[in-house]
């Protein structure tokens, strides 16, 4: 098992290229199940979760090939509608094969998903929506079994805002007969990116970027070319790293209009931010100011940035508090940050942070994907040596983070435990 060893205290200066968005790439890869034509993708990140999804699609019969920077998927030979537990247990996004399989082939057997242990992320909304579209759905032995001769358009109102639920039902509705309306739809940029690709494939979708999607079903979808959007969470993570350590860094191949709430909080911390069409520049020459925030659905503050901002708040010159409203177990990084000298107390879904003058390196353990990133940020700012263990979580969502950080002056290396 790999771990990261970080010697902290170095300013970050230089340029970092941002990878494609993991949370956009995963549903986009599943569109290959909706057509027999080629889906040609660029800016797909090389991540553990992406490889897991590609392995799952390949065992279903999707043909996958790489040509230079392009990834080409072809679903003309799909003949297996089964997603086994062994392939699904590490990644909740695997549920995204469910609706495309039922929409195009009329059946699916998909294991109930796994992933980070950050709280319950129920799949009831996926099942409820699929039933509303006319499918017969049962849960047996830990598997979702779904069948439908032909999905039929309907009106779906989800009980909660769910990103993967919106994406799954959106894909199903593209091939359903008649009109489907999805109300209380997620508005995240990753949902929009999926919708834009589906339109290129021949889908008819209205209301993109709003909480009300209207889909007019079509008989078939065709191939398309698409570039995956930049990863806003990776972008925000590196901005937090600079805010914690100080420095002068330009992030390239990214956009500022997909993480405005996080950018505003970075500015509140005292960082100077400038941006263009495909870059963001950050300059930080002072101890950060503590910022209060509450996680909520897009366009609010993203839960996937909560841990990273908390790491910066630990170093602030004043007290702050963080309210987590999305996942009930998403404070598992708190005890690890406290091992580095942070002063954080939690009460229910609120964390109270008292800024300290310095953090001191220590061995810490990553508990989930974004917690891993927060520990790296804290280690970069800490005095002495920090060992971040169980970084397989980190590799699920960040493409060679230690390589990118080393290039801008961090002292960080990957070693085998």
Automatic annotation (TrEMBL):
The modification 2-(S-cysteinyl)pyruvic acid O-phosphothioketal is found at residue 116. Phosphoenolpyruvate binds at residues 22-23. Pathway: Cell wall biogenesis; peptidoglycan biosynthesis. UDP-N-acetyl-alpha-D-glucosamine binds at residues 92, 121-125, 304, 326. InterPro entries: Enolpyruvate_Tfrase_dom (IPR001986), Enolpyruvate_Tfrase_sf (IPR036968), MurA_subfamily (IPR050068), RNA3'P_cycl/enolpyr_Trfase_a/b (IPR013792), UDP_GlcNAc_COvinyl_MurA (IPR005750). It catalyses: phosphoenolpyruvate + UDP-N-acetyl-alpha-D-glucosamine = UDP-N-acetyl-3-O-(1-carboxyvinyl)-alpha-D-glucosamine + phosphate. SUPFAM superfamilies: EPT/RTPC-like. The keyword Cytoplasm applies. The active site is at 116 (proton donor). Gene3D superfamilies: Enolpyruvate transferase domain. Keywords: Cell cycle, Cell division, Cell shape, Cell wall biogenesis/degradation, Cytoplasm, Peptidoglycan synthesis, Pyruvate, Transferase. Cell wall formation. Adds enolpyruvyl to UDP-N-acetylglucosamine. This is UDP-N-acetylglucosamine 1-carboxyvinyltransferase. It comes from Oxalobacter formigenes OXCC13. The lineage of its organism: Bacteria, Pseudomonadati, Pseudomonadota, Betaproteobacteria, Burkholderiales.
């Amino acid at each position: 098992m790999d771990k990261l060893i970080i010697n902290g205290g170095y300013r970050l200066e230089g340029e970092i290229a941002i990878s494609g968005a993991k949370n956009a790439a995963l549903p986009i890869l599943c569109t290959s199940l909706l057509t027999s034509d080629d889906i040609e993708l660029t800016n797909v990140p090389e991540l553990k979760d992406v490889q897991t999804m590609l392995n799952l699609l390949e065992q279903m019969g999707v043909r996958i090939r790489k040509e230079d920077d392009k990834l080409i998927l072809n679903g003309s030979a799909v003949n297996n509608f089964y997603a086994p537990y062994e392939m699904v247990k590490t990644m909740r996004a695997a549920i995204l094969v469910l609706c495309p399989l039922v929409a195009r082939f009329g059946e699916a057997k998909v294991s109930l998903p796994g992933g980070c242990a950050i709280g319950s992320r129920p799949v009831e909304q996926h099942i409820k929506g699929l039933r509303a579209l006319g499918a017969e759905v049962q849960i047996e032995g830990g598997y979702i079994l779904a069948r439908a001769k032909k999905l039929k358009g309907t009106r779906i109102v989800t009980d909660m805002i769910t990103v993967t639920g919106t994406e799954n039902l959106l894909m199903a509705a593209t091939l359903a007969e008649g009109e489907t309306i999805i109300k209380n739809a997620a508005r995240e940029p990753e949902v929009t990116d999926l919708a834009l690709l589906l339109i290129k494939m021949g889908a008819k979708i209205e209301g993109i970027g709003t909480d009300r999607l209207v889909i007019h079903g079509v008989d078939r979808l065709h191939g398309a070319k698409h570039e995956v959007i930049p990863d806003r969470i990776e972008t925000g993570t590196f901005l937090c790293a600079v805010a914690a350590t100080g420095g002068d860094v330009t992030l390239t191949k990214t956009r500022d209009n997909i993480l405005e709430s996080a950018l505003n909080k970075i500015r509140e911390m005292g960082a100077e931010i400038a941006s263009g069409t495909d870059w963001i520049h950050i300059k930080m020459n002072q101890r950060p100011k503590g910022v209060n925030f509450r996680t909520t659905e897009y366009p609010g503050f993203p839960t996937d940035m909560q841990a990273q901002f908390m790491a910066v708040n630990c170093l602030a010159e004043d007290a702050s508090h963080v309210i987590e409203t999305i996942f009930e177990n998403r404070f598992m990084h708190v005890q690890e940050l406290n091992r580095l000298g942070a002063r954080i107390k939690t009460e229910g879904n609120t964390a109270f942070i008292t800024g300290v003058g310095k953090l001191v390196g220590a061995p810490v353990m990553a508990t989930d994907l974004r917690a891993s990133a927060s520990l790296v940020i804290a280690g970069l700012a800490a005095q002495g040596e920090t060992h971040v263990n169980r970084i397989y979580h980190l590799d699920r969502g960040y493409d060679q983070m230690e390589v990118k950080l080393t290039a801008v002056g961090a002292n960080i290396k990957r070693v085998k435990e």
